[in-house]
Automatic annotation (TrEMBL):
It comes from the Eukaryota. InterPro entries: Sec_Metabolite_Reg, XnlR_reg_dom. It holds the Pfam family Fungal_trans. The keyword Metal-binding applies. This is Xylanolytic transcriptional activator regulatory domain-containing protein. The keyword Kinase does not apply. One of its GO terms (molecular function) is zinc ion binding. GO terms for biological process: DNA-templated transcription. It is found in: Nucleus. Keywords: Metal-binding, Nucleus. GO terms for cellular component: nucleus.
């Protein structure tokens, strides 16, 4: 949430960039001192954004050079008579946005003061750590204020944006609560509460005219809504709204902030948080349907947020403190942002006639991301902290996801040689699926389970099934089948467009082929076909480069320690080698001795799945 710098009495200190939307006024007399011209230009740039977001501050900088310098630009601007602003009728503000959300059809749902306090508490406990786009101290100050108190907004547009933000918080809070929690604290069934607050949030967004609003608070409300709606809808509505969010962010120039020097330290940091969370949402939406993200590498220059707690800065901060080493309020979000940025790099397919990154280059990039997670975001963490375990487990899952993208790209590919040893893909996919289930069932992730359940591991599942069509024996195979049999139907119910969607049909086809291969193998051993067998621990063969993450700090563990590693290990993580060397040669690793068949054309099998899934490119397969 972004705030203005110098609020006068009675004005809000809750939003970021709120002062940007006032009428642009430049005091040229105050700029007569040449030493202050550069600083004043930055203020001028910020004020101009209210009417020219699409141009950005780089336009004003270049224009000033063309007409004879900064001072000339400011003087000429002051001489131009500013036409009076035409204020639309407040009753018509939402008309242009009502075709998406029907603001006239539903009254805003205002909870009682007691219920409001519960919703705010659950939001900052269950949602805020995963969606760090608000500044908790100032956001709470506004949210906990009485609705009957004088408005803190200076314009009707700002007030409606604030109102949309309030209702987005309510909706996300209900989304994050358990069914028992909804009944205990709010006195109603979760399904009815979700529907009530979802419609109220949509009505508030419509009344804020979110399609045309230049209020940061309105975009924050829409982003929170989209983050929450993923838990309730598997159709394309959430996926489509991400594209709208990206466009609206572009209209506010969130992607062109650079190092943020055009804004106050507080405003710049909150704009960074909002933009980078949008990147994470865009990539997740693309993964849901195996499509390309709208945001691509090189299309933005906004720096990543700092590793700071909300309490480390406020709207009055003249500068931000130095970014911290170790866990902070931003740790989870920064891990997601860093991995998302890495994904944009390693998964980017350039225009034809340009070569993609080689596998060694992709490996180096992933290793760098893993190193940052270890040495910056999780430095000094202890295994006994449940919150740290949840964050670190998510980090490991995201790194495994990157390795899967390298080993089994989402585009058609023709390998020049067998690069990875047979079995490594199955090991990576099995580890991902097992760790994913461990996270969802852990008591430590209860408050965040609503968020984790939106991660459907279809890519890892498809990789595992492609491998299991050929690999029918060995401890790794048994481990893979155990995890798949436990989660297959559940994952299908959560897939994009449900089990009738584009991706699930070819996955079901792979499942039939893999089961047939398994049954044939079991029959050859005179064993009756079975759903799964007890998981066998994996030996410590090829190590997949991961952060030094821990098992659950308490209780018994169902996963082999070699799968996950140990936070307290004094040895650094070993990454997969760029070449298939002695360590990674299937014949030298007992994990792979059962299926060391280098003649298997793995990329052809994977390309067949991509063709069935509709993600196969019409261009010729690229070579590595």
């Amino acid at each position: 949430m972004v705030e203005s710098n110098n609020p006068t009495e009675g004005e809000s200190i809750v939003f970021a960039g709120h002062d940007q939307h006032k009428d642009a006024q430049v005091d040229v007399d105050a700029l007569s001192g040449g030493s202050r011209v550069d600083d004043q230009l930055l203020d001028f740039v910020r004020q101009q954004e209210a009417g020219a977001h699409d141009l950005g501050h780089t336009f004003w900088t270049s224009l000033s050079q063309e007409i004879g310098g900064i001072r000339q630009l400011l003087e000429d601007t002051a001489e131009v008579e500013t036409p009076p602003e035409l204020s639309p009728d407040p009753s018509d503000l939402h008309h242009q946005s009502s075709f998406l959300f029907h603001g006239n059809d539903f009254d805003l749902e205002h909870p009682s003061d007691l219920h409001c306090s519960h919703l705010i508490r659950f939001y900052f406990s269950n949602v805020h750590p995963l969606c760090m786009i608000l500044h908790k101290p100032t956001a709470r100050l506004y949210l906990e204020s009485s609705r009957s108190s004088p408005s803190q907004a200076t314009t009707e547009s700002a007030r409606r944006g604030l109102d949309a933000l309030r209702h987005a918080v309510y909706f996300a809070a209900v989304t994050s609560m358990s069914r028992a929690g909804c009944m205990q604290y709010l006195g109603a069934a979760k399904d009815s509460l979700v529907m009530r607050y979802m419609r109220s949030c949509e009505a508030a967004l419509s009344r804020a005219d979110f399609l045309n609003s230049v209020e940061i608070a309105t975009l924050q409300a829409l982003v929170i809504y989209v983050t929450a709606i993923r838990s309730h809808r598997s159709n394309r509505s959430g996926w489509s709204l991400i594209g709208l969010v990206v466009r609206l962010a572009h209209s506010l120039n969130l992607h062109r902030d650079g190092d943020g020097r055009a804004f106050s330290p507080f405003d710049a940091e909150m704009r960074r948080r909002l933009w980078w969370h949008i990147i994470v949402l865009d990539i997740r939406a693309a993964e849901d349907r195996a499509t390309e993200p709208m945001i691509y590498d090189g299309s933005f220059n906004t720096s990543m947020p700092h590793n700071l707690n909300d309490s480390d800065f406020d709207p009055s901060s003249g500068s931000l403190p130095k970014a911290k080493i170790g866990t902070t309020d931003m740790t989870f979000s920064l891990i997601c942002m860093d991995v998302s940025n890495t994904f944009l790099v390693v998964n980017y397919v350039p225009p034809r006639k340009q070569r993609i990154l080689s596998i060694p280059q992709q490996e180096d990039i992933i290793k760098g991301c893993t190193g940052r997670i270890d040495s910056i975001y999780l430095a000094g963490s202890v295994a006994s902290d449940p919150k740290t375990w949840v964050v670190s487990t998510i980090g490991q899952l995201l790194i495994l996801r990157l390795w899967l993208v390298v080993q089994y790209p989402l585009q058609s590919v023709r390998l020049n040689k067998q690069y990875f040893p047979s079995g490594l893909g199955l090991r990576t996919a099995t580890l991902y699926l097992a760790l994913r289930e461990s996270l969802e069932t852990s008591e430590y992730s209860t408050g965040h389970r609503w968020f984790f359940q939106t991660y459907v591991p279809w890519h890892a599942l498809a990789v595992a099934l492609v491998a299991l069509c050929k690999q029918t024996k060995g401890p790794l195979v048994e481990q893979a089948w155990s995890v798949i049999d436990q989660g297959f139907e559940k994952w299908g119910g959560r897939m994009a467009d449900s089990q009738g969607g584009m991706l699930w049909r070819p996955i079901k086809s792979l499942m039939r082929k893999a089961r047939a291969a398994r049954e044939t193998h079991l029959e050859s051993l005179n064993r009756p076909p079975q759903l799964s067998v007890s998981p066998a621990p994996l030996t410590d063969g090829v190590d997949i480069g991961l952060p030094r993450l821990s098992l659950e700090p308490h209780g018994s563990n169902t996963l082999d320690p070699f799968l996950i590693g140990n936070f307290e290990s004094i040895h650094p993580t070993i990454f997969p080698c760029a070449e298939v060397d002695a360590l990674n040669t299937p014949g030298n690793d007992p994990l792979f001795t059962e299926f060391a068949d280098n003649s298997t054309n793995w990329d052809e099998n994977w390309n067949e799945f991509l063709l069935d899934a509709g993600t196969f490119s019409v261009d010729p397969p690229f070579e590595i």
